[in-house]
Specification:
four-stranded mixed β-sheet, 9 helices, alpha/beta, single chain, globular, 401 residues
Length: 401
């Protein structure tokens, strides 16, 4: 008799006890198959493991006495001519891959391209920022192309460059933006206005609360994002404080009194971080990369400055070149970082701190490679130090997953 008093047909006694077990076994089999066919959420490989307490920014560059097998070489087509120090016959171009960053209290694994492709299958990765983030983007693309040739050029909305590794459905893209926020030429109106009344005739309008269109749509596509900004905020050749100053606007109106670039940067970062925290899915991993240091000696880029060293700097040389109190040519990096750390405090961003490790590497810039009019002591040779930035990116990703 069934519960409730209604009668039901009974299964034969020989089947009744086995039927639930058969169902359970079938369900387990289906679940096992589905788990096997889906990408793993955790990589069991110890080569990706990274201790959560490791401070990767504290360490030393060690030169490997033995030849190192590069993860890619100078034939990678994505490398700019001006960054290709081996093809450009830079005297220490081939030696750059023999330098390894050794953190003081832990190990920084090298990014294994094949394991990376497997680990981040069905993932979209976006680099958003200026040409230094493109430097890092090209490094990663070249490493992955060396492991998988089944690649298709494909650009998400707004991207400057992009590649999909078809076998793994992994897309890596670069979205160019100098300030993160929208900016463009501004000229005084014949009808006058608040800026005109202060004597401004021309400049650049910078809307601190509007993202540049090149990356405004990234929240809907990418799973991992790496942002940067900094170099263009202190670029008098572009934003001359007299001839073409930055003029900041908020909610469509000019900010009065006008702000200096560093204050405008603070306001822009505040708005963009709020925008990203609001628009980007909570499962998206967001990094903000710290400032990449320049190594001009003997003057700035337009004053005959150069970077001809072929060995990394010593600690005392680093302090002399970058200490804020010295107010030297290259103080930009630490100055920008002060603004970044202040803006990022309390946000959902993770900091990718590459500054200190990079300060030692005065030897790793293209310098005169590529035949430029001025020496390039800002970008980096490829292969080179941005490969280590990507090692650091993966180590930090693995701590979060």
């Amino acid at each position: 008799m069934a519960v409730g008093g209604t009668s039901r047909r009974r299964f034969p006694s020989t089947i009744s006890p086995l039927f639930p077990l058969l169902c359970l076994a079938l369900l387990c089999l289906v679940f096992s198959i589905s788990r096997t066919s889906s990408p793993p959420t955790v990589n069991p490989s110890s080569r990706f493991a990274a201790p959560s307490s490791c401070d990767y920014s504290d360490g030393t560059w060690i030169r490997d006495p033995n030849p190192v097998i590069p993860r890619y070489d100078h034939t990678c087509k994505e490398i700019f001519k001006g960054w290709n120090c081996i093809a450009g016959n830079k005297s220490n171009g081939e030696d750059l891959v023999r330098w390894r960053w050794k953190p003081s209290r832990c190990h920084l694994p090298r990014l294994d391209p094949i394991l990376f492709l497997q680990r981040y299958k069905n993932t979209n990765i976006g680099f958003v920022g200026d040409s230094l983030n493109r430097n890092m983007f090209v490094s990663l693309v070249c490493m992955l192309r060396g492991a998988s040739g089944d690649v298709k050029k494909w650009r998400p909305v707004g991207a400057d460059r992009g590649f999909t590794f078809l076998r793994y459905n992994l897309t890596v893209a670069y979205h160019r933006t100098n300030l993160l926020v929208r900016y463009g030429r501004w000229s005084a109106s014949p009808n006058g206005g608040s800026l005109e009344s202060l004597g401004y005739k021309q400049g650049y309008r910078v809307d601190v609360d509007i993202p540049e269109h090149t990356w405004a749509e990234v929240p809907s596509f990418h799973h991992i994002l790496i942002f940067n900004t900094g170099h263009w905020w202190w670029a008098p050749s572009k934003f001359d404080p007299v001839q073409s100053p930055m003029l900041f606007f908020e909610k469509g109106m000019p900010v009065i009194p006008p702000l200096p670039p560093e204050r405008g940067m603070d306001l822009s970062l505040k708005h963009m971080i709020l925008y990203m925290d609001k628009m980007i899915n909570t499962n998206t991993i967001k990094f903000f990369r710290t400032q990449s240091p320049r190594h001009f000696e003997g003057g700035d880029w337009n004053e005959g400055g150069s970077c001809r060293r072929i060995q990394p700097l010593l600690p005392d040389q680093v302090n002399k070149l970058f200490a804020l109190e010295n107010k030297g040519t290259n103080m930009e990096a630490r100055s920008v970082n002060q603004h970044l750390f202040k803006a990022l405090n309390g946000s959902s961003f993770h900091v990718l701190d590459i500054t200190h490790m990079s300060e030692f590497r005065a030897d790793a810039h293209p310098s005169v490679t590529g035949g430029k009019k001025h020496e390039d002591c800002m970008h980096w040779c490829l292969p080179g130090i941005t490969d280590t930035w990507n090692d650091l990116l993966v180590a930090n990703l693995e701590k979060l997953l």
